[in-house]
Amino acid sequence: MIYETRVYRCLPGRLPALLKRFETITLKLWDKHGIRQAGFFTTLVGESNQELTYLLAWESLAEREKKWTAFQTDPEWITARAKTEEDGQIVLNIVNQLLVPTAFSSIK
């Protein structure tokens, strides 16, 4: 397995809009494309409380490329994202990493 960690840093006050978009739109589209989430987290203590961190689980880099590209280019996603940003940009920046579990990791 490969895990992807993605951290979305929101513009001030826009985290609720991002959370709503994931809950009502994004997760349904991920289901459509076979994208598996392994957890979502907001920051309790850290540099910023305007962040959403989540993990995705992939069988391989090829699976990630195929499914993530299909999601990103899905006309339904493009339209929905634009609609949720009619009141302004939500995400300031995104940082992602692709991770491989160690031999002693509780998650494999």
Automatic annotation (TrEMBL):
Domain NIPSNAP: 3-105
InterPro entries reported for this sequence: Dimeric_a/b-barrel, NIPSNAP
SUPFAM superfamilies for this protein: Dimeric alpha+beta barrel
Pfam families noted in UniProt: NIPSNAP
Protein name: NIPSNAP family protein
Protein source organism: Bradyrhizobium pachyrhizi
